[in-house]
């Protein structure tokens, strides 16, 4: 059962808000006095397509396959490159109190992504939920078995270090492996991986349909280690959540674009340490309790694994997402293991 979050006043917490560049609004065509009337259906169909993973409007039908990249979240790997352009990010514990990101891209292609980190079996399962091309540098024993069995198309830095994957000179291994989207596509082509199969679309709703308790600031603490505290602050002007790690806003290393989110799902799942290295088995199949945070509001819901995707449910029905980017935190369900989840009204 989901632990009732501790409501705390974060009066001492002062976080700088950054605004992202807004897309230029499309201009309406000028209608000449004697010009023939424009067909209504043609105007309505100008933006009739939408991104399958964000629901945002697109001028052309999306045809690209999704790409899922393992991104390092060690303090020595921050700030990362490419996170601000991800459609969906999973944040899940690896060993100890260290979380890693699985960043899924479909609607946007950042120039560079990284630092790239090694694979774990449960990240592979999450990537398969979107039929993604999976990108990692290294692997655990269980992940290696999955990759070598051909479960998922993948590119790994163990094979392509120094070719598709490059080492940055401003960081030290294992926090310095990067890959460009250009090289991802190059690697896919050389391996005959199809890249023209977009994932099945998620369900989306309008912002006006959101309900729940006021929650403008949410904090997730893993093992009470502040270096991995994840804080989400609601930016009312943007209508989006900003993300912070250890008090620093999550921004792109290259562009300084902030991570801005419309949907945050915090899902409780059984975690079990399985070896002396601290590797984990995480049950991502059974479902459980969760928080869904949107538009400055939070509600307690359930999560289910729907064809490999972790999605929110309420009263047995799937809850559509707000159009935009989504961040999913998987936390241990055992008392005392996950630290705390708290929010400010």
TrEMBL record:
<feature type="domain" description="DUF3048">
    <location>
        <begin position="222"/>
        <end position="328"/>
    </location>
</feature>
<protein>
    <submittedName>
        <fullName>DUF3048 domain-containing protein</fullName>
    </submittedName>
</protein>
<feature type="domain" description="DUF3048">
    <location>
        <begin position="53"/>
        <end position="193"/>
    </location>
</feature>
<dbReference type="Pfam" id="PF17479">
    <property type="entry name" value="DUF3048_C"/>
</dbReference>
<dbReference type="Pfam" id="PF11258">
    <property type="entry name" value="DUF3048"/>
</dbReference>
<keyword id="KW-0732">Signal</keyword>
<dbReference type="InterPro" id="IPR021416">
    <property type="entry name" value="DUF3048_N"/>
</dbReference>
<feature type="signal peptide">
    <location>
        <begin position="1"/>
        <end position="19"/>
    </location>
</feature>
<dbReference type="InterPro" id="IPR035328">
    <property type="entry name" value="DUF3048_C"/>
</dbReference>
<dbReference type="InterPro" id="IPR023158">
    <property type="entry name" value="YerB-like_sf"/>
</dbReference>
